[in-house]
Structures are given as structure tokens and as C-alpha cells.
Amino acid sequence: MAPQLHVKTELNSEPPAPVPLASETGPKRPSLVRRWLREPLLHFLLAGALIFWTYELLNPAAVRTARVNQIVLTKDDLRQLAVHWLAQGRPPPTADEMRGLVEQRVHEEILFREAVALGLDKDDEIIKRRLAQKMDFLAADIAALQEPGDAELRGWYAQNSSRFALPARASFRHLYFSFDRPGAHDAAAAALDKIAGKPADAPEVATIADPFMFRDYYAERAPDQIAKEFGPDFAKAVFQVEPGAWRGPIRSGYGWHLVFVDTLEPGRVPAFEEVAPDVKSAWLDEKQLEIKRTALAAMQARYTVVVPPVETVDLGDLRIPQASIASTSMFPQ
Asked: For the whole prediction, is pTM greater than 0.85?
């Protein structure tokens, strides 16, 4: 029988060291994260962000509309408007002219945005101004669809008849004495003594005056037409001349004139039947403008326009832009 082996294992008889309790080591300091989580300011910011996010989630259209329905023009935009103005050969714009340019720009922007909202830009590669014109054309089309009745046109004409008043008209012949002639006024007065009482087409009449570069006879001319050719003072004097005899001398921008007035027709308001087609055209034009103004006012009410005061924009150093000339060299300068 084999002898039994007895193995003796020696174990560590020392007990493990005790783990100290939290109460025995003292209180620990809270971490940085815990301190931030307890910060009231963070709670306020998180609550505000949550409210804003919830509102935008529930009202996406309102938030988007508030951002889109705002037209902002900067001082640089106003300067650009002034540059375009100067490029047309005009003097620097006044404050009132700048306000007019700003209003035109705002109206153009409003019409452009409304046109895009209507989908007029779909499949159309036209510039923004063209889109604004399309909105303008819509108003014109709406006005064109209206067909006024005879009674409506007559009532409108009764209130606007002065717009169709026919001006006074004169038919006259004249003899011209140039400023280049010494004593032109005295020569005209002497000639008047010779031809007084003679008809306008008497043979000796045409030989006593200087040649005139334009006409010798003018038929049925309105005051503004005569003023355009001879000046306002001459036109006024012609309509004060008694018809049927030579009168003068009357001064114009060219010299002195003797005038024989054949007929004078006083101004008058025509009957409706005489100008019915013109009345209808004017009525349609007025309706078109009225529709445009109403539509633009309704669209503009949906926008907030932000523009700096035109007086605060420095326009003193503006220069008319010069077109760049391409270099003919093969290499850049």
C-alpha cells in the first residue's frame, strides 16, 4: 500500500484591511457637470430654446413669412440707386428724388416677390424686372376685361370733361424782320404803314420782309404749338390780335413780325359724341391705374420695409461709372 502524501497549505492568517466609509472620509465636492446642471441660467436658456423650437415646429409658415416679408435696403443699395441715376447724365439726386427712387425700388421688389409667390417664375429665365412687369401686366389685363356702358362713360365724361377741352386755335400769316437788320423794329413799323388795309396775299406784301427759315403761313395752331415755334410772348400776342388786318410789330425769338390773323377759334369742351373713343380709352387707362394702385397697396401691406434715411447716405464722392475697355494685348497688364 502506497504511503499517503499529506500536503499542508499555508494560508494568510491576516484579515483584509477594512474599506473606509464615506462618513469617515468627509463629504465629496460635486463635479463641474453637476454644478452646471444646477445653474438657473442654464435652465432658463433650455426652457426658452424649447419654447422657440416648439413654436417653430407648430407654426413653420408664420416664422418663414416673418423672415421673408421684410424688405431691407442698405446704404450701399441707396448709393447704387444714385449711381444708376448719375449714369443717365443727370445731376446728383435730391432727397425727394432719392425717396422716389427708393419707392420705385421697393415697389419693384414687392412685385417681384409677389410674382414669384404666384409661380410666374416657373420655367421662365427672365430677370427680376421682367417678373415685376408681369405683375403689372396682370393689372392691365384685369382692367381690359372691363367693358364700360354708354351711360357709365357719359357720367365719367361729365366729371372729367375738362381733360378733353379743345384749345383755342389761330390761323395767321406773318412777315419777318430779322434782328440782323439794323433798326429791324423801325423797319417793321414802316412796312406796316405801307401795307395797312391791304389783303394778306397782296403782291407787294411779300417783297418788304426778310426770308424766314420756316413757314410764312400757319393754319389752326394752338397756343402751345405757336409758343414752341416762336415763344410764349409771341403766341399770347397772336391771340390778342383782331383778325382781318395786319398788326404788329410783334417780337419773337427770331426778330420782329407783322401778323395777319385769318381766323381765331376759341377753346371749347366738345360734345361726348365727338370724343367718345378717346373717352373710353381714358376711362380704361384710369381703371388700369386704379387697379394697379389697389393691388400694390394690398401687397405692400404684407411687407415691412427697412430703409435708412436718404439724408444719411453720402453721395458727394459718387462718380459716373465708366465702361471698361478690353485690352487688345495678348498678355494681361
From this structure: no
